[in-house]
Amino acid sequence: MRTQVVIVGAGPAGLLLSHLLGLDGIDSVLVERQTAEYVQARIRAGILEAGTVELLRDAGLGARLDVEGMEHRGIHLQWPEHRHHVDFADLIGRSVTVYGQTEVTKDLMAAREKAGRPAYYSADGVTLHDVTGKPSVTFVDSDGKARRIDADVVVGCDGFHGPSRASIPDPQVWERTYPFAWLGVLADVAPSTDELIYAWHPDGFAMHSMRSPRVSRFYLQVAPDEDIAAWSDDRIWAALSERLGVPGWTLETGPITEKSVLPMRSFVATPMRHGNLYLAGDAAHIVPPTGAKGLNLAVADVALLARALTAAVRGDDRLVDAYSETALRRVWRCTHFSWWMTSMLHRHGDDFDARLQLAQLQRTVTSEAAAKELAENYAGLPL
Ligand code: RFL
Ligand code: PHB
């Protein structure tokens, strides 16, 4: 089989890239290790930047998003006895939208099926060949048949653990692991807040997010090696009530439908291109989830790459030649912002660190300049 672009990995980055290339008349084939059902069910990110929403709309993917997405003007920043609303709409004229990664993925999969773009799910042993010459990808399909796809270009959208990054010789890698993790909780209960709450607390960070008017999402800072069995539903609700509590506010509780421990790391690998191989999304970089950047950064990469590959097919290589450098400017900005939010909100170090964090939180909600800095980064720089 032959195509113009083989995309390894059908997460949001791979699915969206295939969609955007299709709009420009460029053929692609997706090769994914998991089943479509598995990919769709993974509970991950929940916040879309203004630019991500615009891009999805412009790409014809806005129908359900416009009905079910919940537009938020900003976030609540909190520490004991204090809750402050940071209003992005007032500060910078932009907002964010709550629409889960599961929903974005569903919409992308539906669009792919409608357009009849080919995808191989449950692909085993995906291997990249000759990425600096005439690239190809081999694998065993869901029927056990060995396949080979030749292409002009291979794009690795296969996440942090995928094989593509290993095809770039001697990458430069930057990594930071954090001395804590998140316990993520999904519950069938209406959110007890209008907009997301990010809370600093002596017991550790807590966050109140949501997925719909009837489903809430919560996070608690825990140890990186936390045993999830130690967290009964009762203990979870007690910790959330304590850490998210402010006078005069109550947390509504309900049935917990999912809980898991999520590791936290910052990671950047460069370059994001080697010959005819390009990396996009989590395959090239990971941010801790505190700034809600992971999914949005993956979208920014593929928006840039789709434009660059389209120009290259038409004979103009300037954008593909600049892809890695251009993408990495945004990657490092978001890496800094995610690190900053993470460092400000999680308990670590000693009491001196705690005082610095509280001083920074106070500054962020009282200085318009400081609040704008948060707002611009959180609502997202223009694509
Ligand atoms: P994905 O979504 O990881 O998709 C990569 C795809 O590649 C497939 N793959 C392979 N395919 C073929 N052959 C192989 N050998 C393969 N190996 C892997 C995988 O099955 C998968 O389908 O990366 P992508 O598309 O770059 O999208 C990035 C986002 O998914 C990611 O940045 C965010 O979800 C990060 N993230 C979160 N971000 C937030 O902004 N807020 C969150 O609350 C949040 N929670 C999370 C997260 C990431 C998590 N992971 C990766 C551990 C929670 C989790 C658990
Ligand atoms: C989520 O809803 O899962 C979510 C929202 C904001 C974050 C991280 C996760 O910063």
Automatic annotation (TrEMBL):
* Organism from which the protein derives: Amycolatopsis vancoresmycina DSM 44592
Alphabetically list the UniProt keywords. Monooxygenase, NAD, Oxidoreductase
Q: Which PANTHER family match?
A: 3-(3-HYDROXY-PHENYL)PROPIONATE/3-HYDROXYCINNAMIC ACID HYDROXYLASE (PTHR43476), BLR0106 PROTEIN (PTHR43476:SF4)
Q: Which Pfam families match?
A: FAD_binding_3
Q: What class of enzyme is it?
A: oxidoreductase
Q: What Enzyme Commission number(s) appear in the record?
A: 1.14.13.2
The superkingdom listed in its UniProt entry is: Bacteria
Can you tell me where the transmembrane regions are?
A: none
Record carries keyword Nucleus? no
The protein's GO terms of the molecular function aspect are:
4-hydroxybenzoate 3-monooxygenase activity; FAD binding
What range(s) does the FAD-binding domain occupy? Answer: 2-337
Name this polypeptide is given: 4-hydroxybenzoate 3-monooxygenase
- The answer on whether this UniProt entry bears the keyword Oxidoreductase reads yes
Gene3D superfamilies from the UniProt entry = D-Amino Acid Oxidase, subunit A, domain 2, FAD/NAD(P)-binding domain
Q: Please name the taxonomic classification of the source.
A: Bacteria, Bacillati, Actinomycetota, Actinomycetes, Pseudonocardiales
